């Protein structure tokens, strides 16, 4: 096995690892954003519900 083949394999592993880490980080970010949106919607819905009960 030549040096270039080993180097290519090593670089491929590095890229794959970094890619997986980036995907995991992005997934966490999306989950956090979705949770914030859900929370905001629930607060807005609760406020609307309270206002409709007063009528």
From TrEMBL:
Domain of life, source organism: Eukaryota
Name of the protein described by the UniProt record: RCG28317
